[in-house]
Design goal:
single chain; 371 residues; alpha/beta; Rossmann fold; Alpha-Beta Plaits; ten-stranded mixed sheet; 30% helix; globular; binds iron/sulfur cluster
Length: 371
């Protein structure tokens, strides 16, 4: 598996463009380009945050990819994303504006078709079909451009997790409700990834996020852009650069077990891995895994008790809450109400998915353990 890595000190248009050109040359992307190719770019636009925050894919990374495509006579290019919350013109227009995407027009079309298509999956998948936003379902070629982050629920967010945003609007919280356990949710992400099959995945890690990602963490720049065709192995590689143990990230562990990721076969191209990288802070939600402490049935019993005792729940800080209702809108368990312009959470029924924390624009939701 060929993995490119280029050092990019800052969000500078010409430096990024050079890194993209070098990566695409190494990966032989020009050979994929054909007249009339319909290209969809899948960014991470999880919420409305301006590009100086390490929350969303930086517009200059997308701009560099679009420039390269146009120089290769590709003109049918659409930005395709369903952010957290509603999937409609009003919401996505606000996202495009705040995230700096409007400046990319007219070279890139910002998707305004809010329909979706049902894609049937392989017979042995637990998810026999997925509802996928139309520009992704109809694309000939998909370029996945994610932001490198820690993540409250999955621990890590890179190429695989970014594809969750092809599921339209509030169907995403429904998937959390259907698969509340991290093992099942990770399996769903991998089945989705194998269905969408992006041709290329680029990781924007010039600035990255540590701590309470995907929206409430803080900046941890790696000053690099990575790219690969094999995004499963790339996620293994990138998680390692963050100082995470890739095999402790459930979706990566399952990708390795399924033979989708092959960490023993990584050929690095471009710049070297910087020495003395500082490990990323992990999210507050990261539970300890006690399953290996005691052997056999006793170990499993202990792990069950520990999971209950250590389970994390959201906690609202009333002084920061402005009563916008975005948390309630995205809660798959419907246990959040807005009363007197403040969010009120019920504990019963909470599946600890942290969609509410992800969607809160005020960082008013933190994590609290049962004990
Ligand atoms: S907790 Fe956050 S998302 Fe929920 S109503 Fe308050 S400010 Fe809005
Ligand atoms: S309250 Fe928050 S963490 Fe609990 S189910 Fe709702 S969105 Fe998920």
């Amino acid at each position: 598996m060929l993995q490119t890595l280029y050092h990019v000190s800052t969000y500078d248009e010409s430096l990024i463009y050079q890194a993209i050109c070098n990566s695409f040359e190494a990966l032989g992307v020009a050979g994929d380009m054909k007249p009339g190719l319909k290209v969809a770019i899948k960014p991470n636009l999880v919420t409305a945050k301006s590009p100086e925050f390490p929350v969303t894919t930086h517009p200059l990374v997308i701009k560099a990819v679009v420039r390269w495509l146009r120089e290769h006579q590709i003109t049918d290019i659409t930005l395709a994303e369903s952010s957290g919350g509603l999937y409609n013109a009003e919401h996505m227009n606000a996202i495009y504006t705040t995230c700096g995407m409007k400046q990319l027009e007219p070279d890139l079309a910002l998707n305004m078709d809010f329909s979706s298509k049902t894609i049937h999956t392989k017979e042995d998948f637990y998810n026999r079909s997925f509802s996928v936003i139309t520009p992704i379902a109809e694309a000939d070629y998909i370029i996945n451009i994610c932001k490198l982050k820690t993540h409250a629920m999955t621990g890590y967010s890179g190429g695989i997790k970014n594809l969750f945003g092809v599921i339209p609007g509030l169907e995403k919280p429904q998937m959390h409700y259907r698969w509340p356990d991290i093992k099942d949710f990770s399996r769903m992400l991998l089945e989705l990834a194998q269905t969408v099959k992006p041709n290329l995945t680029i990781i924007d890690a010039i600035d990255a996020m540590e701590g309470n990602g995907p929206t409430g963490g803080t900046s941890h720049p790696l000053h690099m852009i990575m790219a690969a065709r094999d995004f499963y192995t790339q996620d293994y590689f990138a998680a390692g650069l963050m100082g995470l143990e890739p095999m402790e990230i459930e979706m990566i562990r399952q990708a390795v077990d399924l033979g989708l990721a092959n960490p023993s076969d990584i050929h690095l191209h471009g710049d070297s891995i910087p020495e003395n990288l500082t490990p990323f802070q992990v999210p507050d939600t990261k539970n300890l895994d006690f399953s290996g402490v005691l052997p056999g049935k006793l170990g499993k019993y202990f792990a069950k008790i520990a999971a209950k005792v250590l389970k994390s729940y959201p906690q609202v800080h009333k002084d920061l809450c402005v009563g916008c209702g975005k948390c309630a809108e995205s809660c798959p368990a419907h246990i959040i109400n807005i009363k007197n312009k403040k969010a009120v959470f019920k504990k019963k029924g909470c599946i600890s998915c942290f969609c509410c924390q992800e969607m809160c624009p005020m960082k008013a939701i933190s994590v609290k353990r049962a004990l």
